[in-house]
Structure formats: C-alpha cells, structure tokens
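[worker-b] picked up task from shared queue
[worker-b] task type: protein-ligand structure
[worker-b] ligand name resolved to adenosine-5'-triphosphate; SMILES cross-checked against name lookup, match
[worker-b] sequence length check passed
[worker-b] input payload:
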Amino acid sequence: MTQAQLAQGTSPLLAVRDVSVVFGGIVALNGVSFDMHKGQILGLIGPNGAGKTTLFNCLSRLYQPSSGDILMEGVSILKRPPHRIAEIGIGRTFQNVALFPNLSVMDNVRVGTHARTSSDIISDSLRLAWIRRSETGVNNKVREILAYLDLEEVAHTTVSGLPFGTQKRVELARALAADPKILLLDEPAGGLNHEEVYVLGDLIRKIRDERHMTVLLVEHHMGLVMSIADHVVALNFGKKLAEGTPAQVQADPDVIKAYLGSKDQ
Ligand SMILES: Nc1ncnc2c1ncn2[C@@H]1O[C@H](COP(=O)(O)OP(=O)(O)OP(=O)(O)O)[C@@H](O)[C@H]1O
Ligand SMILES: [Mg+2]
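[worker-b] inference finished, payload out:
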C-alpha cells in the first residue's frame, strides 16, 4: 500500500474549497475544490489557460482568491501574508524558472533556506548579504541539498551559464531548502528532453519517498503525470472537469474532449 493510500480516509493535508479567481472580467478559476493527502503526488492537468498556474499562485499566496478558502491542516492559509507562506510548509518552483541569474547555484539555494517564495530581488539580495555573514548551519543544509540533487559540481557556477534543465534542478533545490511539507511544481518537465523527463519523474518520486513530501505537480507532459501521480485533477476553463486515478482521468470522456479541442496535444 502506498503512503497516499494509507493517508486516504484521514483529514486532508491541504483542502481547496470552492476557490474562484476573477481577473477583471476573466474568470480564471470557477469554484474549484479538491483535497491533497499527505504523501500524495497529485497531478494537476488541463489545456492552456485552464487555470493551473492561477491555482498554484493562490496556493503560494501570490494571488488572493475572489472567493473560497484554502486550508492547510484545517487552518486557512488566506490570512497569512504571502511572505510567510513557506513557514507553514508550502514551497514552489515557477513555470518560467525564477532564479537569481547572476548568483551562484549555492547562493540561490541559500536564499531558499530562508523560506522565501517571492521573487522580490531587492529584499532577497539584502537578506543574502545578511545570511552570508550570520549563518553557519545554513551551509551544511545547502551542501546536503546540492549533493542530494547532484548539483555539487556546479555549486559555484553562476546560474545564467547553466543549461535550462540544470537551472530547473537548482529551482527544485531552492524549494527543497525550506523543507516544505508540500512541494508545488509548475511544469517541471517543460523544456526538458525525453531522457531528462524520465530522470525527473524518478527524482520527484524519490523526493516524496525519502523526504516525506506531498507534491502538487502541474504538467502538460501526460506521460510524466500518468506515470508518477497517485491522483489527478483535471481543469478546463477554470472548472474542475474530473478527478481520480490517472487511469480514470485519462479515460474520462470530458477530459478527452477538452484535450482534443485544445491546441497543445
Ligand atoms: N494576472 C492575470 N491577469 C489577467 N488574467 C490572467 C492572469 N493570470 C492568468 N490569467 C488568465 O486566467 C486564465 C487561466 O490562466 P493560467 O495561467 O492559470 O492557465 P494555465 O492552466 O496555467 O495555462 P498554461 O498551461 O498555458 O500555463 C487564462 O485565461 C489567463 O489568460
Ligand atoms: Mg500555467
């Protein structure tokens, strides 16, 4: 029995409750609800513009839902200021890599140990200067994570000089550095080749198993989602279209129709 199956029946780690987001006239999310259980890898899929990143941004507090609630271990996260979201155990990567290009891999990961999720460059740089001076334990943590993600060789390399696939791994390292309970990954396979996607799938599973994390994976790469997710939620036009096991969602007529009608498949 998997960890996720064991967790079923217990109260959810994260509960998304009737969340809607309206931008001007556009309804980006329309009454979306689902649960995430401890130890689960939950795949969030849907055609372009379905609302996946919008939901992600609500979970990481970049966006405030127009209505609805998001509960972490039964407590609403919506009253938390965005810069404190990492303290309650939510870490994320960005669809378009959002690292500090002129800093080394090590410094980028170091910023993550201070539980930062926003890309407020000025305050992060100031913070970094402070971290460099005052924190020694941080270095051990950073080294452990660099070793875990096989990034030791590039520890002192400036991020902008690295291949895109490696930059994505650095982003993952930065998110892991805050020891999140929930790891939010927005299209981690985007821009990776076939072999890299395969390696990434193994890595995500390994992180879940060894670091006891719960993972929300937004992904267009169906092969990856279907091979590693325990549970899949499909969105279309801001609404939940289907949810269930990968096999159930893949066979759902509404999901098939949504994908056939979209340009990205
Ligand atoms: N900041 C914003 N302001 C206005 N509209 C937005 C904003 N962010 C997203 N939208 C709109 O909300 C809808 C959902 O977009 P979102 O980026 O969440 O989709 P997605 O599922 O992540 O798509 P993709 O697969 O292309 O990344 C789209 O119609 C998009 O144009
Ligand atoms: Mg998106």
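[worker-b] attaching auto-annotations
[worker-b] Residues 116-121 have pLDDT under 50 and may be disordered.
[worker-b] releasing lock
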